[in-house]
Design brief:
Isopropylmalate Dehydrogenase, 2 domains, 11 helices, 12 strands, 19% strand
């Protein structure tokens, strides 16, 4: 029986990238049924309202096995809705946002080969989204931290280390300044660590690790980096530079009984319709989705084919040093699968 996936094509380059992901999934013979949904800034600009996600899309998300989201634009300014990704993470309690950071063959490696995983708490922190005006010139943002979410995301990080056969989780915080919020995060990490005697818990302050990732990123190889929502949002973007292009960074948002997959990069509206943007992050997010839904062989076939295409270096997009169109690189991945 086929599993159903809600697919949000998104804004900017999102629709063309998602179409390419579906082409690859179909080429590998997936049984997944992709159900198209609307959401994002372009939909909202036409329809208005207090959400970037229409009610029928919420209904589709609730009645599918998982979700897939192309890059979406989030409007700025007071009164505009929260992002599509944040809305879905909070609605389905997708507490673990996961980004593998791994060097590919034949790509820029500005600071050498890296291989680690960023795990970010996905539902709270400053993304709780509550800001308050106290006076004409005083504004505060609320950083919501709960023990339960810290415990869940820490457990995910340790389980990820077990799955990969790695021996270390790195907790990133600023508990010397944010004594209650970061202090609670750290306490919960230490409580979870008791259940994993074979795995070390390292601690880094956020400012120090930002420096260490440039100075000596290899000290984090084969480790799971774990932090709160905004800290890891920023750090994982820094980490993506270590593999030469954010166009290679695929991402998952995982909860207890639902998950949503997406490329880590934005909607790049200036490139919309140009068939130019690196398709790898979207294609591999789709491959990870198939793995999550039990199609492990199909998933592996896509990962292997993509790695071979990058390694051969003949059909690569501009950010990888080539001149191929996005669709041409995908054609090459499909050829390699077949």
């Amino acid at each position: 029986m086929s599993k159903k996936v809600a697919v949000i094509k998104g804004d900017g380059v999102g629709p063309e990238l998602v179409n390419n992901m579906i082409r690859v999934a179909e080429a590998v013979g997936t049984n997944v049924e992709f159900i198209m949904c609307e959401a994002g800034a372009q939909w909202w600009e036409k329809n208005g309202g207090d959400s970037l996600i229409p009610p029928d899309t919420w209904e589709t998300l609730e009645n599918t096995s998982a979700g897939f989201k192309g890059p979406t634009t989030t409007p700025g300014g007071a009164g505009s809705p929260k992002s599509v990704a944040v809305s879905i993470r909070q609605k389905f309690d997708l507490y673990a946002n996961v980004r593998p950071i791994r060097s590919f063959p034949n790509t820029q490696k500005p600071l050498g080969d890296v291989d680690f995983v960023c795990v970010r708490e996905g539902t709270e922190g400053l993304y709780f989204g509550k800001e308050v005006q106290l006076t004409d010139d005083v504004f505060i943002a609320i950083r919501k931290i709960t023990r339960l979410s810290c415990q869940k995301v820490a457990s995910y990080a340790f389980e990820e280390a077990v799955r990969r056969g790695w021996k270390s989780v790195v907790a990133i915080h600023k508990s010397n300044i944010l004594k209650l919020t970061c202090g609670t995060f750290l306490e919960e990490c230490n409580k979870v660590k008791v259940n994993y005697p074979g795995i070390e818990l390292e601690e880094y302050h956020i400012d120090n690790i930002a420096q260490q990732l440039i100075k000596n990123p290899q000290i984090f190889n084969q480790k799971v980096l774990l932090s709160t929502n905004l800290f890891m949002d920023i750090l994982s973007e820094e980490c993506s530079a270590l593999v030469g292009s954010i166009g290679l960074i695929y991402s998952a948002n995982i909860g207890d009984d639902y998950a949503m997959f997406e490329p880590a990069h934005g909607s790049a509206p200036k490139y919309a319709g140009l068939d130019k943007v690196n398709p790898v992050a979207t294609v591999l997010a789709g491959a990870w989705l198939l793995d999550y839904l039990g199609e492990k062989e199909n998933s592996k076939a896509i990962f292997d084919a993509t790695e071979k295409v990058i390694g051969k270096g003949k059909k690569l997009t501009y950010d990888l040093g080539g001149s191929a169109k996005s669709s041409e690189m995908v054609d090459e991945i499909i050829k390699m699968i077949r």
